[in-house]
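Dear colleague,

Following up on Tuesday's group meeting, I ran the structure prediction for the two-component complex that the binding team flagged. I've pasted the input sequences exactly as they went in, so you can double-check that nothing got truncated or mislabelled along the way. The structure tokens for the whole assembly follow below. Feel free to forward this to whoever is handling the docking comparison.

Inputs:
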Amino acid sequence: MKVAENLTARLLQTIGAQRVVVAEEQLAAYSVHGLAPRAIVRPSSADVVAEVVSFAAAEKLALLPLGSRSKCELGMPPDRYDIALDMTGLRQIAHYDAGDLTLSVDAGMPLRELEGHLKEKGQFLPLAVPCFESSTVGGAIASGIDSALRQQYGSARDFLIGAEFVDGTGQLCKSGGRVVKNVTGYDLHKLLLGSLGTLAAITRLNFRTFPLPAASGGHFTNFADCQSALRYRLTVEKAGLPLANQEVLNPRVAEMLSAILERAGEALPLGLNRGEWCVYSSFEGSDAVVQRISRDLERIARETGAECSEVLQTAADESLGGMLREAFEWLRWGSPANVICKLALPEVKPEILAALSHLTESDSLRVALLVRASNVVYFTVFGESEGDASIQSLSKVVAGVSAVVRTAKGNLTLLHAPPGVKQKGIGSQFSPSDMATHQRVKQSFDPFNVFAPGRVLGGI
Amino acid sequence: MERRRPLPACRLPHYSEVVNLQRASLNPSLIREMKSLLGACNVLGEPEDLLLYEFDGSVEKAKPNLVVFPHTTADVSQIVKLARKYGEPVVGRGAGTGLSGGALARGGGVMVVFARMNKILEIDVENRRAVVQPGVVNLDITRAVEFAGLYFAPDPSSARSCTIGGNVAENAGGPHTLACGVTTNHVTALELVLPDGEIVRVGSRQGDATGYDLCGLFVGSEGTLALVTEISVKLCRKPEAVRTLLAVFETIEDASQAVVEITANGITPAACEMLDGWTLRVVEDYIHAGFPRDSGAVLLLEVEGLKEAVEGQAAAIEEVCHRCRAREVRLAKDDRERDLLWRGRKSAFGALGRISPSNYVLDGVIPRSKLPKALQRIHEIGKKFGFSIGNIFHAGDGNLHPIVLYDTRDTKQFEKAIAASEEIIRACIEMGGALTGEHGVGMEKSELMTLQFSDADFALMRRVHDAFNPDCSLNPGKIFPLSRGCGEIRIKKKGAGSVNP
């Protein structure tokens, strides 16, 4: 306890009492994978962030920068965790040139609040990430979580144009800039995407913004089986229709979505027969474009043997699009112990989805599959309890997914799992060379290993 | 608040203290060993052969001691190990069309030319991916996949000759990157050879690799971290409809105001290029593309997508241009007219060669809302130094390319051209812009980097550099300034050649 007291005293002396919290009941709220920090610091500026990082580096302490903490359990548990760096106090718009469609915003700015500011100028940031209501901009970037609008706007790496951050030596650094085209110096800001707080404390992010579309539309269609749903998906792709998003839902995901909508007094557009696969598409543009895409999707659905299909009314589309943006969130809480993997596959074939669906024979473990743009598949398996038997079966399933993905020459990211499963599941998929390359980057940004050691690739 | 001491372990010696740019004559046994490794036909060492590799498209000049042509990744790894054994630096090169001296052997040594690693290894039409070797010419990727209605989006003006390896090193852009993004947005995986010869892979063919976005780091690192030996790229689907418009303005102010308004109105054309009156007359005399010789500036605009989308966008652009006092907005009636307009744009630099012995193409970026002000500043700077500076550039993304005409034989004039260029770049930075939008830092702008980056920024970039290239054996003398602080900007004394981007 003596060490903790000393740490507290020194932190208070260095950073100032008004920014440091050490009350135990508050510390628990900053736990990551059950590990609570010894102090919380709430910096009000980038300079204070730099002070805290310098302090941690000199004291050989481990720091974890956090936003709203909605997705801090992505990645592995940190090996050490002394100070939670709560970035939500940095929440100004530093620069917004609506005429240039560029924005520079503090990392702690909530996405919902930012949305309001941009809307006033008829613009938006296409970061449609889960936990949208609470997420901060910095958290969305550091978590690396997928945006549901990536089909049209790309992922964050395509519109993040610069960043400011405090590196592991306590220095405020920057990379990129505030212009939409720029090749000056290394693109270090790209490394922050999905870095899970292991490289730097992000203080500010620069983005390219986008005009709000004049109109938007949605389309929903049901298929008797996976083959037809994927045939429809491929035909739509080949038709070159510019969709904002398209998601293929296996029967389990469709049932869950249906149940959630029912609780909210709504329903899936077409109702649902047991075993059906559904495809949701959303699209944007002028009225003429929206009508054209609706028409073409109806035609393609008919031609590829859809059971039924429907062009959605705006309210239904917004509700469904919002629910699917949050899919990670409701899949995560779908059972007492479950596993969510993000798979990126060179090709999404019925055989692969079938192999994934049949990884578990037991009725108590059921598989949910959600196929998104860029051949990204969210694989979820629901366990019944946190008991040893359930954990063991989940681990077995993760090993199975890993094998399927390896055979398909894709890659797997273990997003969510009970701690025991995560540790077992992650180890084998990275070669010593992968680890060494990541280690070089980690060492450069964080030579004293201050930032959340152990969170990336199970050890970095 | 108590200010803490900086952490001592992170102090690095200045780049100028660690990089060795002293040229020494080559050990003959290195040549012998290279020849036995690659075969004599893949090794060039005679002075007359090396002359060809002394230039790229920039105003810089530096000769390698040896040029080698690998055929495989294993060759590259062996070459690097051999060069290392003899203490020679290594620099990678594609077609040598770069505009910042990135592919020049500043410290002499071994130049690895990827021209013979030019195979397209795999095309996956359904999933829109291709895997290629670095020596594949940019346009050849599109040629190989257009049968399936696909294309490779980044299209630098040199697309007919530049290689994808060079595009990756420089993170190349082009006119059509406004809507589609630059090279980094289209690369998903890389195979690399590190300076010690180790072969590593980063990213994944599909994208979304687990861990850090290492592809994002290596693309645009200008050959200072690794040599790229294989590239996985995304392919785009050709749009259903394209409309090409030529908007003609009496003044450059009106044309730039139209760009500001197009951007601010949320219209994203696929391309938005500007030629000022002076440049378009030079081009028109050469290509006869149909640019009105008496106009102050033209905008070459392209919209693409669904039929319904392009019609709406073309109409919106036309309306904005007329609001900004366009004299005429002309829609290309067919492919022939479209190709001619684009040929006019892409041949501009050749056209300039007809009226001046040399030209120097600058590259800077500004926020698009500052375009009228930036063009005004360029005009003033030209006047101050006694040059007429032409402008032909990617207006839609604020990427300026002022062109200074000068005579190489007149050293004073060249020095003045460099000084004018520096002042233009400073003006870009003051307006919230950046040093380079697509040509790269290379040798050309390394001394100007201090305008944009702090000591802390350099320290981090250096640590990343050193993590992969600790003894500066790979492409030494690039990106990082050799002088200390902004006061000591280098004025180059040597002559320069004509630019052919």
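The longest helix of chain B spans residues 411-430.

Cheers,
M.
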